[in-house]
Design brief:
two-stranded antiparallel ribbon, Rossmann fold, alpha/beta, 11 strands
Length: about 280
């Protein structure tokens, strides 16, 4: 397949379908990622796949989970399989979405619609909602608010929904991230600059309190938030377009803390943040 196109040159870009990305063969590739358990139920379930560079970013997600002690991880490319796996894993499981699945109704997506378009199944709706209702954890990365656009309840779980009449992001490039708080996810961390996409003008849930923002179009847009949903916890970070984003030390530290907070384990904010000189 052809190499992945670059992001569109114009400001105010929408997510672009990229035909170089995974086809239904995703399931095979996902099964070979590090962290796949050899037996038993998964402590973490990572849903990957779709028209984005997930083949580069999902292995980094699995490595990040391992960094904080989550080594029993299963990676799947089928949303229904993810719902089944997280249901089998039980109350203490972590569901990670590093995927892009939506109906692709716009005419410009017609050439790739047959491969990538997705309509949310009843099993996914029931399974993901029940996971949080019973006290599970959700880490929603980058394109998660675009997903499941035929399911109004998804916004309630992830905290935002992409609206095709107004949501957009500038072209892939330097994003100046302003860190807020106070919250264990960001305490002690400085503002930073990262190569990424800054999603904006989304439909936000009323209880979203931004922990990091980026400014474009004259507005400060939330990039990171943490919420209680049902009996569970959910963190959304709309950063994470490419491998460079996950390799950035401050973003990686935020995601490490996110996993610890989601699993209700100790979040150590006393250590020197990445890139900061002692003193």
């Amino acid at each position: 397949m052809p190499a992945e196109p670059t992001s569109p040159p114009a400001t105010g870009a929408e997510p672009v379908a990229r035909t170089a990305q995974p086809t239904p063969g995703d399931a095979v590739a996902a099964a070979r990622l590090p962290g796949r358990p050899t037996g038993g139920t998964a402590r973490a379930v990572v849903l990957t796949g779709g028209p984005h560079p997930f083949s580069a970013t999902t292995p980094r997600v699995v490595d990040l989970l391992a960094d904080v002690g989550v080594t029993n991880t299963v990676v799947v490319a089928d949303p229904d399989a993810a719902a089944e796996q997280v249901g089998a894993a039980g109350r203490g499981a972590l569901l990670v979405l590093n995927t892009l699945r939506w109906r692709m109704q716009a005419d410009r997506y017609a050439p790739v619609r047959e491969v990538h378009a997705y309509a949310t199944s009843p099993a996914v709706r029931r399974g993901f909602a029940a996971h949080l209702d019973r006290g599970g954890a959700l880490l929603a990365l980058h394109a998660a608010p675009i997903c499941f656009d035929d399911w109004p309840g998804w916004r309630d779980l992830v905290g935002a929904a992409w609206r095709w009449d107004r949501s957009h992001h500038p072209p892939l490039g330097e994003v100046h991230v302003r860190v807020g708080g106070p919250h264990p996810l960001v305490d002690g961390l400085d503002d930073f600059t990262i190569l990424d996409e800054a999603y904006g003008f989304m439909d936000l849930a009323d209880d979203v309190e931004p922990l990091a923002t980026a400014r474009h179009g004259g507005v400060d847009h939330p990039l990171l938030w943490a919420r209680r949903v049902g009996a569970g916890r959910a963190v959304t970070s709309t950063l994470g377009h490419g491998a460079e984003s996950f390799d950035h030390p401050t973003h990686r530290e935020i995601l490490r803390r996110s996993v610890r907070w989601l699993l209700d384990t100790s979040v150590d904010t006393s250590v020197e943040p990445p890139g900061r000189e002692p003193g």
